[in-house]
Amino acid sequence: MEAEINRAAALLRAGELVAFPTDTVYGVGVVVWDADAVAKLYAAKLRAREKAIPVLLADPGDVTLIARDLPLAAMLLAERFWPGPLTLVAPKAARVPDEVTAGGDSVAVRVPDHPLARALIRAAGAPLAVTSANLAGQPSPVTAEEVAVQLGGRVAMILDGGRCPGGVPSTVVDLTGPIPVILRVGPISLEQILEGVQQDDSL
Question: How many CA atoms lie within 13 A of 84 on its CB side?
Answer without folding.
Answer: 15
